[in-house]
Each structure stands twice: as structure tokens, then as C-alpha cells.
Fold this sequence. Notes:
single chain, 574 residues, mainly beta, Immunoglobulin-like, eight-stranded mixed sheet, seven-stranded mixed sheet, 6 helices
Amino acid sequence: MLAAPAIFTTRKSIAQVTDPVLPPSPPTRPWRDHLPDAIDPLQPTDLFADPYRIPQGTANIDYGECGRNDHQRWGEFFGNSALELDQADLYQLNVEANDQYRFHSDYPAQLAWAYEGLTANNPHYPNPTIFAHYGRPIIMRLYNQLSKNHTGFGTPEVSMHLHNLHTPSESDGFPGDYFSPYKAGPTLTKPGYFKDHFYPNVYAGLDEFGGIGDYREALGTLWYHDHTLDFTAANASRGLAGFYLLFDDLDSGDEHDDNPAALRLPSHPYDYPLAFQDKRFDEDGVHLYDQFDPEGTLGDKITVNGKIEPVLKVASRKYRLRLLNAGPSRFYQFHLVNANHIVQKFTYIANDGNLLPKPLFNQTKVRLGVAERADIIVDFSAYPPGTVLYLVNRLVQTKTRGPDDVKAPGSRVLKIVVDRLPDEPDVSQVPSTLRPIRRPTAAEIAAAPVRKWTFARKGGLWTINDKLVNVKSAGATMAQGSMEIWDLNNPSGGWSHPVHIHFEEGHILKRFKDGLEVPVPAYEKGRKDVYTLGPNERMRIFMRFRDFSGKYVMHCHNMIHEDHAMMVRWDIEA
Length: 574
């Protein structure tokens, strides 16, 4: 039985590390299971039904909330009393176990975890997509209903991270803020049944620009997932991951929007998020994972929204597909091909949830490290009903430490069938400009101090600046309102690190390979929160630290590396 996360369970000193050799997962018949034609968003919940549990700035410990820090700037948004009606959108998610889940119809019903929530069609919908809007705060209540007697991989303590909202630290899902009714993490003061997260949904630059911040700093495609110390890979692999889509007047989520400023990109139900996870199954078709080996478990089956080799039926019109590498360790290079393996073209509009200044037309591939996202527009009106397309992965990977090579034709992971005409005319568009970007000036770059970070191995484990993670102590501090250049370096010759920095987006200034400067790809020239360092690669990024203070982390988002200590706490000081 696994109880609470504990450093001694995973932090063994290992002089020699060998990659685990596992038999392949049992074969599955492709294209047996279908994804829904449209996603079913999370619906609001009446958190005022229990007067003792009305959201408030201070932790409601007497009535079951865990011992979190006070919500920052609560009084500025809501006043100094408990929340009142119509001041925020209220939602609830319940972390629950389901022992009847099927990853594929050829595999048995088995245990999986999910954030279950209320949707229009299901009171217990697993990992529902959240629709949020800038200028409208959200209170997200997370109940932990996992059994303390859980056995197998994963731990029944949870900490939910919303990647990468501009969020106060106490609501960020800090790895040490894990909780259950029975245990509390080292950065909480008390266990609890639930935790209220405050998502202000403001642009970064709140203090600098007033109002709700700088609209150039807007995010779009975010995702939420477990971030429990030492057990992120295990818990996320169990199923704890979902989408959070954020809209504003520009990217409004309404292709019929009559606001002249609105982009009118394809909108729900033609705005479709797709999450990819690598998993491995034993000879009986049961999901397995080794959480104690610092090499982890590389999955040889790819799930799409929790299903192996599913089918997605689409109308013959434009779609916005939001692609997410939800980990734990496999990298992807996706191509859209027809039945004859001929590569199809699409438009690339956003990276890591950030709209690019201009769309990249006529693209043929999307490369995603763990936790990276890409929004693409595919115009299915070019294909008559009955057309079959495939999303294929051409990136070969044999070890968790990183990808090997690109090889065609690749592995089919999703079948797309154009099966119908649209119910109404397609009025969506892909404009020639998307969202302007506030780039750092030459003077800001020259004045910014440089902070160096090295990602490497030590004693068989994964380190940053030769140190293992310590969530109780900051490895760096920076003043609120300051700017820095972070120099990220991967001197290894054998592994890749998708480095994720919580809370703030950055700009890649320079990339280096084997000591030589190389061009920054066009899709990386916007704002980012994941920076993939291949072997012997280095990059410099420009960072700002704004609006909120407290503890955050930077880590490798190969969740196996993260769980085996490649993470550092850093603090913003007001």
C-alpha cells in the first residue's frame, strides 16, 4: 500500500541505471472505439448550497478545507468577507477512482482515476473541459475522494496544477501542497477533504496596466493535472488530466461573434481538444507503471483522450484542434495523412496555449515535447464526406529519456472520418494576424541579470544545478516586478528535457546546439511555458515576474525526471 508521498520511497542513490526491458502491450484492433463528436464542458456548481462551505479568502479549515495559504488579492476582487453570489464562476471537481474504465474494447475493465465533474449530459464526466473567460474569476473546489487504502501505483494524495495560468501561488498546485482527508503535504498546515483554488483569469501585467492586465499576454489552451510531489507521473498516468480553455474579446470562442475585434476562429463544437498519453499494459491488458525506477515506464500504446486508436468523426468544415502531449515521457511528431500516407497541410496558430502573431500556413508537422501544446486549424471542407484521414506519429522513441529519430510512415494514433456536411454554414475564419506580442526591448534584455540552470544526472537521479528538489526551501528568489534572463543548459549527450516554468510565460532569445547558435523555429517565436532541451542544447529565455508572490517551481516535464528530483522551487518576493 502507498500512502503519502515520501522522499525516501523514490530517492534511492543508484550508481548504475539500466533501462527497464518490458514485453510489448497486447495487440488491439484499431478503430473500435469512438470519441464523441463534441466535447461536453464542465457546468457550474452551486457552492452556496452549504452555508458553512462558502468560498472565502482564508482556508475554511473548520469545515473540511485543507490548510492552504490565504488567497492573494482576494479583497481586491471580492471584498474581505466570504464570496457573494455572481462575483465569480463556481465549479467543482471530485478526484475519484473508477474500476470499470476501458482504454480499449479489447482490454478489460480496470482501475483509472479522474477529475469527475458535472456536464450537461453526465453528472460524473471524467476530466471535463473547462471554458473560462478573462475578466471573470473562477473558484474551483477540488474534493479528494480517493481511498486511503489504495494499492498499486499512484498515491491517494493530490495537488492539482493548472498549467500555466497566471495564478496566485497557493492555487498553482504546488507539488508540496498535496492533500487528502488524512494527510497534508509539507507546505500545507492541515489535511482536508477539499481545497478551493482561486483562478482570477487576469492577464499578466495586472499591476503594470491596471484593469485585468495586458491583453497581449493572453493564454488560450491550458490544462490541469496532478502535481503531487514524487508521484506526478503515476497520478497523471492514472488519468488525472483535463483541459482548461481560456477566452477573451479577441479569441472569444464564438465564430459568430459580431465584435469587429474578434478573430472568429472555429468554435465549439468545432473546437476540439486532443490529449495524448503513452501507456503500457501487461499481458492481460492491465495498465502498468513503475514509479520507483528513475527511468520510469515508456508507453507503447498511445491514448487519445483516454482511448487507444479511437475514431473521431468530423463535419466537412474548419476545425480548431488543440493538441496536448499529456505525458508522461513520450515525445511526438504528428503528421496528418490520407489513407495512402500522403501528408496533408494545415495552419498552425498557437504554441503552448499562446496565439502566434501570425498564423503559419501550409504546415505539415507538429512536434511536441511533454506538456507542449499546439493549436492547428484543419479545413475538412477540402475533403468529401467519406474521406478517411489519420494522425500519425513519426517520432521513434525507445527510452524514456528522449526521442531517437523521425521515421515514415509512422504509427497511426487517431482515425478521422469526414462523415457529414455541417449543420450550418461555416462562418469561421483564419485571419492573417492573430495576437500581438509584447517582446522584450533591447534595453530590457541588456539590463536583465542572467541566471543559469543546468539539467543533468547525479547519482542515478535527475538534478538541476546538481541538486535534488527541496520543496521547503527556495533555490532562487526574485523581486516582484523584476525581469531576468534564464540560461537553460542540457550538457548531456543522451537525454531530452522539456523544461516547464510555472506561472510566467517567457520568450526564447537564443538557441544553441553543440555550442553553436541555431535558428529559433517559427512556432517557438511567440510566448512559451515549456522549453524542450535536446541533447547538448542550451537556450536563453527572457522572463518577467509579476502581480503575485510566493512559491513556484521549474522542472523537467518528462514526469519521470520530475518525480526523480529534477525540479527546483523558486519564490517571488513582494
